[in-house]
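Section: Multi-chain targets

For targets with more than one molecule, the full set of components is provided together so that the structure can be written out for the assembly as a whole rather than chain by chain. Components appear in the order listed by the source. The example entry contains two components.
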Amino acid sequence: MAHEEINLTLQVWRQEGPKKSGKFETHVVRINTHMSFLEMLDVLNEQLNQQKKQPVAFEHDCREGICGSCSLVINGRPHGPMQGTTTCQLHMRHFNDGDTIWIEPYRAKAFPIIKDLVVDRSAFDRIIQAGGYVSVNTGGVPDGNAIPIELNTAKRAFEAATCIGCGACVAACPNASAMLFTSAKVSQLALLPQGRPESKQRVLNMISVMDKEGFGLCSNIGACEAECPKGISLENIALMNREYISANFASRRVPTK
Amino acid sequence: MKWLISFLTSSLGKKVVMSLTGLFLCSFLLVHMIGNLKLFADSDGHKFNEYAEFMAHNPLIKSVSYGLYFFILLHAFQGFLIYFTNRAAVGGGKRYSGKQVSPTEARIASRNMAALGTLILAFLLLHMGQFWLKAKIIGLADGVTLFDEVKIAFSQEWVVIAYLLGLVALSLHLLHGFQSAFQTLGLTHPKYTPLVKMLGYAFSILVPLGFASMPVYFYVMHING
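Its structure, encoded as tokens over all components, is:
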């Protein structure tokens, strides 16, 4: 296997802390094209360590596209130029020798920068805490096939459930709206019989918390859907809107969060 | 009532208001366009003047028109409010420095609804100043009919250009707005959404074209004497 080495110029966002002002820093790295984007950043940090400089702070965990930790806006696009991949799944073979790459954190009021490329995405946790779950009572184990679920419905719920909560939708949205993320969870649970009993209260509370966190409003542009590494569909947003309107006008529930 | 206020002030409730007022304004556009086609009914404008007279004095039309003024203001005011909320949510300033080549970058209309809306509002002020203000508030001069006013207005080059620009903005605004309203209301379905989208495209092209035919027709007539 041919190992190709390329030279890259990186424009990396550096910011010491939440209240500090940040700026772009220029670095040059020579890397192997088989590396992932995060491994390329590891190379950069090794280089910075050797120069006794502060390494660049960035988030990562599983490095196999499932944890949703890696973020980054690469050349103006969340998770970089490829569709349907996270930053850790983005390989350097998609870049050319001599390229300049702009690396920035997600920018949204609800996602304050902690350091360099790391943003605080706990707003998403609070949205989930507001209702993104089903209450399960203790007792005997229910029979696996006791509740029939139509195959297509199960598939739609599963597709919504593939959301990894990475926040690319917020980063891509010109309004920094969290509707795709919130709707993925609302839809997943609203589609399944296990989620139905709490569906009205869930949607009321999750949207109430989403608004309080300071996300923008949805303009149905579709940038979120295009940038989502898991391909979560805009249809989920319509389903959530339907749920929200019916929860307000056709149920006795009011938001409790 | 607390629930209603909490709905109307929620992010989604605000969008529902935008979509319902938007769809109402769409129905107005259609009626206004079809009604104004009476301009072509005869060369002396008798039928158009008759129609304008009817519209101005029919009590049902009059009461609906107050609703119309209110919904135009609500749609515009709420729109500006949402625009500023969204700018604040982004965090202000230039957002990303990287050269952005997003797959949805082509959808210019959806990303510029507020700007297009402002253009339409500016056009509306010009339009109302020319006809509504003269016909309803100031009053037309003796012997001058609304049809004459139309002919005078559309004999001026700058008016025709301003109208055409306003209609292009309207068309782009509708191209996104029409189907977006259905999405906001949760009215999407694999069976019906393609129909809604087709209807939306047809509406946003045909209605502005219908309107555009009027200034263009009268300008051409004026040029040819």
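Residues 150 and 162 of chain B are 14 Å apart (CA to CA).
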